[in-house]
C-alpha cells in the first residue's frame, strides 16, 4: 500500500504508469516490489531528464536568438561560415563588442561617453608614441615667449546634429569648461588640469582660436590631447553645461541608442569628413564580469572585448594559439607600484628603499602572475610617454641584504602591507613580495582593504607598504613628477611618502621655464634617474593593454587608449 | 484586521526610519570622502578647492544631522536625491533597475516554491529511503555550492559548450534561465529541508494518525492533511527569501550582466554614494516589510490558530 503511494507521489507526471504499477505491486511481495519500485523510479527520473533535455534542446536549436534582435543577424552571420564553409559576410552586419563598464554614462558625465567610442573628437589626439597629432585642430603655433597658442581648426566639419564646427563651437566648449569641474567616469573635465595657467581664450578667425597663459607653456599640447580638448556640439548643452539628450560629436560614429548599463549602439557617420568607419553598426555591451565576457567571446555572442581590463592575462593565455581568436596588445598608461611610508623607520632611510627594490624579482612577478603581459620597471614614469627614459631594472638579493643589514642591523622588523581586496592577483603578488622581503629582514603583515579605506589609512600614515597604481592622464611627465616627487606634491603628501629632494625641485622649476624642448627633456631624464635611485615609491611594472577578438574581424588593433574602432570590420 | 494593518503600517515607517538612519550613520563612519572619490577617476587627484566645490554641489558642506534631515525632508516630498556618482536622480535610477531585479527575483521565487515544496514532500514521503538520502545529499550540495562558481559552471556548459543559452544580458525568458537557477538553487534547498522536517513533525500528530485510521491513501494523508499545517513555516521562510531575492543579488547580477539594484548598492558602497545607498535601503526595507505583511496575511488564511489568536487579542 505504502509503496503504491510512494510511486504516486514521485511520478506525478506519469499517471498511467503509476496505475499500472499499482496493479502489479498489489500482487507482488516485499523484495520484488522494491525491485519494481526502483526500476520504475529510475524510469520516471530518466523520463523527466529526457523531457528536460528535449525542452532545452528545442530552445537551443534556435541559436540565433541568443542575442537580442539587433545582434541576431551577427549571430547568424558568424554561424554561417562554419556550417557551409563559404565565408559570406555582409559587412553591414552589426558587430557586437563588450567591455566591463558603461562606456557611455550619459548626460551628467562631463564627456557623455568615452573617447574610444569615436563619437566625439578632440582638437588634438596622439600617435603611437603618445606624441600630439592633429585632429579637429589642423595646425598650431606657439608664440616666442610660450604664453600664447594659436590653433587653426579643420574646415568643412559638421557635428552629428548638423551644426557647423568652427571657432564659435570651440569657444562654447571652453565656456562650458569654465563653468567648473565636471565629474566623469573617465577623467574629470577640469579646465585647470588640462589648461594650467590659462588666462584667456578667444576667437581670432572663423576657424582659428587663441589661448593665452600666464606662464610659458611649451608642453601645453601634451596636456590637451584626447579628453583634454574634447569638442561637442554647442547646441547639445543645457544651462548647467550638461548634455541635453544623446551626445553630438564630430566622430566617425554617431550614437544611435544608449541603454545605460546594458549597451550602446553606434552607427557609421556617413557624413564624416575623413575616412569613414568600416562597420555600419556596432553594439558595445556592458558585461562586468571578466569570466562571462570571456565565455561570451568564445560562444560567439560578442566578437571582441575592449576598454581597460578587457581580459585578464590568465584567460588571455587560453586563447593563444587558437585559430578562432587573436590577441592584440600595446603599451598601457598604467603603472603599478609599492608606496612606502617614508616618514618612519625603516623606509625613511633611502638604503632601505633601495634594498626593497633590489630584493624584488620583477621578472618572476610579471611572468608568473601576469603571464608576461607586463613590463618590469623601476622608473616612476610610465613607458607610454615619449619622455620615458629606459633605465635597466636591477635585481640583486645579496646587495639588498647588505643594504638592509646596514639599516636594520640583525633585527627583523614587521611592516603593514596594504593591498586592494578587490583585485584577486594582488593577494598572490603580496605573498610573493613578502617572501622576498622576509629575506632582507622585513616581515609583512598583509592587510587586504577596500581602496577608499586604504587611502584613508595611508593618509594617516598607518602603513608600511601599500600596493597602488597610477594612470597617465596625459603625456606631459611633469604631472607625475610633481605629484610624487615635489615636496608639496599631492601624492607625496597623501601617501605620506616623505620624499624631499632639492635637486628635483630645482629641475622641475628649470623645466617649467624652459622653452627649448631639449632642455626640458634633459631635466626630465635626470629626474627619472633620480627616481630610480632615491625611490620615492617602488615601481613594479608597467601594464600591457590586452584585448582579445574573434578572427572573424579585421582591423582590431589595440591603441594606447582603446582600439581603432573605425577600422574594425568583418574579415573577407 | 484594521488595527493589525495600521500596526503594520506604523512599524513600516519605524523600520524605514531606523534602517535609513543606520545606513546614513554607517556611511559617514566609513572612511572615504564622496566628493574626493567622485573626482578621483582615471588617477586624477583633485585639489582641496575642487573637493570643496563638489562638496557644496553634493550638499556635504553642512553638518551630518542637517544632511540627514534635509534628505528625510526630500524623501517625504518624493525626492530620493541625486546620486553622487552619476549625478542622476536616485529615483530614476531605481525605477530603471527595479524591474530587472523584480523579474529575476520573481522567477527565482516561483522556482523555489515549486522545487522546495515538491522535493520536501518527496523526501518526507520517502523518509529514510534511498530517494530521501539522495534528496538530502542534493540539498547539502546545493547549499554548499558557491553561487559564483555554479554560475560560471552553467555558463561554461550551457553557453560556451552547448550554445543553448545566452551567457548574459537583460532580455527574454532565455536570459533568465541560468540566473534564476543560480538564485533558486540554495533557496530551494533550504525550503525543501524545512518542508521535509515540517512534514515529518506532522506525521506523528493525532489528526494525522486519525487520517491513516480512516483509511485515506498516502497521497491524501500528505497533501490534504499534513501539508496545510506543515507549509506555514515554509511560507514564512519564503517570505524572507523573497525579501532577499528582491533586494538583489550582487553576484548573480554581476556575472550575468543584469543591472539590477543589488549591483547598484555595491557601486554605491564603493563610491560612498550615500543618496543611492539610502534609496536602496528604503526600497529593500519597503519590500521586506510588505513581504512580511503578505506572509502574515497568508498565514492568517491558512492557520486558524493565528486568526483566533488575533481575535482574542
Which features characterize this protein?
heterodimer, A: 572 residues, alpha+beta, Dipeptide-binding Protein, domain 3, 6-stranded mixed beta sheet, disordered N terminus, B: mainly alpha, 14 helices
How would the blueprint of this fold be written?
The complex is a heterodimer of chains A (572) and B (313).
Chain A: H1 2-10, H2 15-26, H3 30-61, H4 69-84, E1 95-99, E2 121-122, E3 124-126, E4 132-134, E5 137-142, E6 148-153, H5 167-178, H6 191-194, E7 198-205, E8 208-213, H7 220-223, E9 230-231, E10 253-259, E11 263-268, E12 281-286, H8 290-298, E13 304-305, H9 313-319, E14 325-340, H10 350-359, H11 362-370, E15 374-376, H12 397-408, E16 413-420, H13 424-438, E17 442-449, H14 451-459, E18 465-471, H15 478-485, H16 490-494, H17 502-513, H18 517-534, E19 537-550, E20 553-554, E21 569-570
Parallel strand pairs in A: 1-12, 1-13, 16-17, 16-18
Antiparallel strand pairs in A: 2-9, 3-4, 5-6, 6-8, 7-8, 10-11, 11-12, 14-18, 14-19, 15-19, 20-21
Helix pairs in contact in A: 1-2, 10-12, 15-17, 17-18
Chain B: H1 2-29, H2 34-39, H3 48-58, H4 64-76, H5 90-125, H6 130-144, H7 147-161, H8 173-203, H9 206-213, H10 218-246, H11 250-255, H12 261-270, H13 274-302, H14 304-312
Amino acid at each position: 500500500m505504502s509503496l503504491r503511494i510512494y510511486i504516486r507521489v514521485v511520478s506525478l507526471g506519469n499517471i498511467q504508469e503509476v496505475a499500472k504499477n499499482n496493479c502489479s505491486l498489489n500482487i507482488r511481495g516485499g523484495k520484488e516490489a522494491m525491485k519494481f519500485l526502483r526500476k520504475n523510479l529510475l524510469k520516471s527520473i530518466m523520463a523527466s531528464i529526457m523531457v528536460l533535455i528535449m525542452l532545452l534542446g528545442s530552445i537551443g536549436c534556435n541559436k540565433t536568438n541568443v542575442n537580442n534582435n539587433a545582434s541576431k543577424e551577427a549571430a547568424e552571420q558568424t554561424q554561417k561560415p562554419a556550417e557551409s564553409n563559404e565565408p559570406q559576410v555582409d559587412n553591414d552586419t552589426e558587430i557586437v563588442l563588450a567591455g566591463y563598464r558603461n562606456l557611455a554614462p550619459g548626460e551628467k558625465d562631463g564627456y557623455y561617453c568615452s573617447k574610444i567610442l569615436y563619437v566625439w573628437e578632440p582638437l588634438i589626439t596622439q600617435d603611437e608614441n603618445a606624441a600630439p597629432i592633429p585632429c579637429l585642430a589642423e595646425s598650431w603655433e606657439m608664440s616666442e615667449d610660450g604664453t600664447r597658442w594659436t590653433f587653426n581648426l579643420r574646415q568643412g566639419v559638421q557635428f552629428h546634429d548638423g551644426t557647423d564646427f568652427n571657432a564659435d563651437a570651440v569657444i562654447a566648449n571652453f565656456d562650458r569648461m569654465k563653468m567648473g569641474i565636471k565629474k566623469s567616469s573617465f577623467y574629470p573635465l577640469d579646465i585647470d588640469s588640462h589648461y594650467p595657467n590659462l588666462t584667456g581664450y578667444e576667437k581670432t578667425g572663423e576657424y582659428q582660436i587663441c589661448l593665452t597663459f600666464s606662464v610659458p607653456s611649451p608642453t601645453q599640447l601634451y596636456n590637451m590631447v584626447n579628453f583634454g580638448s574634447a569638442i561637442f556640439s554647442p547646441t547639445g548643452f543645457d544651462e548647467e553645461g550638461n548634455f541635453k539628450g544623446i551626445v553630438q560629436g564630430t566622430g566617425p560614429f554617431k550614437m544611435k541608442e544608449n541603454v545605460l548599463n546594458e549597451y550602446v549602439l553606434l552607427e557609421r557617420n556617413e557624413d564624416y569628413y575623413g575616412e569613414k568607419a568600416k562597420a555600419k553598426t556596432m553594439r558595445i555591451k556592458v558585461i562586468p564580469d571578466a569570466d562571462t565576457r570571456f565565455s561570451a567571446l568564445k560562444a560567439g555572442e560578442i566578437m571582441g572585448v575592449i576598454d581597460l581590463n578587457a581580459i585578464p592575462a590568465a584567460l588571455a593565455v587560453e586563447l593563444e594559439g587558437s585559430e578562432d581568436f587573436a590577441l592584440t596588445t600595446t603599451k598601457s598608461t598604467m603603472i603599478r607600484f609599492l608606496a612606502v611610508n617614508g616618514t618612519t623607520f625603516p623606509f625613511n632611510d633611502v638604503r632601505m628603499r633601495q634594498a626593497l627594490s633590489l630584493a624584488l624579482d620583477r621578472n618572476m612577478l610579471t611572468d608568473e602572475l601576469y603571464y608576461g603581459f607586463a613590463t618590469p620597471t623601476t622608473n616612476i614614469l610610465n613607458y607610454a610617454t615619449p619622455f620615458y627614459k629606459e633605465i635597466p631594472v636591477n635585481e640583486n638579493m645579496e646587495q639588498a641584504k647588505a643594504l638592509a643589514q646596514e639599516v636594520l642591523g640583525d633585527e627583523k622588523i614587521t611592516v603593514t602591507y596594504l593591498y586592494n581586496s578587490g583585485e584577486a592577483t594582488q593577494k598572490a603578488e603580496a605573498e610573493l613580495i613578502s617572501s622576498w622581503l622576509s629575506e632582507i629582514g622585513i616581515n609583512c603583515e598583509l592587510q587586504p582593504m577596500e581602496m577608499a579605506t586604504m587611502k584613508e589609512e595611508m593618509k594617516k600614515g598607518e602603513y608600511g607598504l601599500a600596493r597602488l597604481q597610477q594612470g597617465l592622464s596625459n603625456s606631459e611627465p611633469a604631472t607625475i613628477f610633481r605629484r610624487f616627487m615635489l615636496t608639496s606634491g599631492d601624492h607625496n603628501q597623501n601617501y605620506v611618502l616623505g620624499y624631499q629632494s632639492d635637486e628635483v625641485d630645482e629641475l622641475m622649476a628649470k623645466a617649467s621655464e624652459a622653452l627649448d624642448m631639449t632642455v626640458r627633456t634633459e631635466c626630465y631624464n635626470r629626474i627619472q634617474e633620480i627616481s630610480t635611485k632615491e625611490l620615492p615609491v617602488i615601481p613594479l611594472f608597467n601594464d600591457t593593454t590586452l584585448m582579445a577578438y574573434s578572427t572573424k574581424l579585421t582591423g582590431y588593433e589595440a591603441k594606447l587608449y582603446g582600439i581603432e574602432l573605425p577600422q574594425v570590420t568583418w574579415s573577407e | 484586521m484594521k488595527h493589525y494593518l495600521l500596526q503594520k503600517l506604523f512599524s513600516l515607517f519605524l523600520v524605514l526610519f531606523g534602517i535609513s538612519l543606520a545606513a546614513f550613520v554607517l556611511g559617514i563612519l566609513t572612511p572615504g570622502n564622496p566628493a574626493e572619490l567622485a573626482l578621483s577617476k582615471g588617477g586624477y587627484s583633485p585639489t582641496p578647492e575642487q573637493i570643496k566645490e563638489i562638496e557644496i554641489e553634493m550638499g556635504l558642506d553642512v553638518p551630518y544631522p542637517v544632511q540627514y534631515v534635509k534628505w528625510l525632508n526630500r524623501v517625504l516630498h518624493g525626492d530620493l536625491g541625486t546620486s553622487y556618482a552619476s549625478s542622476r536622480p536616485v529615483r530614476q535610477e531605481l525605477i530603471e533597475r527595479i524591474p530587472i531585479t523584480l523579474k529575476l527575483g520573481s522567477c527565482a521565487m516561483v522556482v523555489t516554491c515549486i522545487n522546495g515544496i515538491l522535493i520536501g514532500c518527496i523526501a518526507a514521503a520517502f523518509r529514510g529511503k534511498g530517494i530521501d538520502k539522495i534528496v538530502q545529499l542534493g540539498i547539502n550540495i546545493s547549499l554548499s555550492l558557491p553561487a559564483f562558481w555554479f554560475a560560471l559552471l552553467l555558463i561554461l556548459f550551457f553557453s560556451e559548450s552547448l550554445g543553448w543559452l545566452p551567457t548574459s544580458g537583460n532580455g527574454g525568458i532565455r536570459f533568465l534561465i541560468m540566473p534564476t537557477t543560480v538564485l533558486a538553487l540554495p533557496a530551494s534547498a533550504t525550503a525543501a529541508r524545512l518542508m521535509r522536517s515540517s512534514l515529518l513533525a506532522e506525521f506523528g500528530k493525532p489528526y494525522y494518525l486519525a487520517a491513516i485510521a480512516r483509511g485515506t491513501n498516502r497521497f491524501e494523508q500528505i497533501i490534504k492533511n499534513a501539508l496545510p499545517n506543515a507549509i506555514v513555516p515554509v511560507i514564512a521562510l519564503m517570505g524572507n527569501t523573497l525579501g532577499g531575492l528582491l533586494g538583489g543579488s550582487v553576484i548573480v547580477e554581476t556575472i550575468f550582466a543584469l543591472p539590477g539594484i543589488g549591483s547598484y548598492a555595491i557601486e554605491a558602497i564603493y563610491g560612498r554614494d550615500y543618496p543611492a545607498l539610502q534609496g536602496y535601503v528604503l526600497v529593500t526595507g519597503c519590500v521586506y516589510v510588505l513581504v512580511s505583511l503578505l506572509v502574515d496575511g497568508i498565514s492568517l488564511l491558512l492557520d486558524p490558530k493565528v486568526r483566533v489568536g488575533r481575535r482574542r487579542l
